[in-house]
Fold this protein.
Amino acid sequence: MIRNLLLFSLSMVLLTGCTKFLQPAEDRLVGSWTLAYVEKQRLFNTTTIYTGYENGVFYFYDNGEAIFDDGQIQMRGSWQLRLVNGGYYDANGNWQNGTHQVFVLHLVNFQYNQVLHWEFDDSYFTSNRRFVARYQSYSYDYKYVFNRY
């Protein structure tokens, strides 16, 4: 009886500690995030670039609403994180065929005539506090790294 109670207690502790890892990706993205940096990558060259969105905070809500606020301008719109089955380039630049996570962010501020529309080919969490989104253009691979705020 004591052994069963100990085993039950241990399993509850393990399951409770792992709940963040068992959450769907959409739930893990809900919250406040900052854009830590963006890298423009080629085969033998990586350059950090400035997008203008590094000094603000991205708010992702569970209803799909998104807000960007840098203290001066606020942009509103939507975000979407979904699984897609098909071909894509992985984090190492290798062509893969299978299921991957696509991230789309669309924000606007009509008063200041600003539009932000990012569509990423692949996205993934490296931890509960870091989210990476990538897309590939004709010449470069772009890597956007977000940190939880």
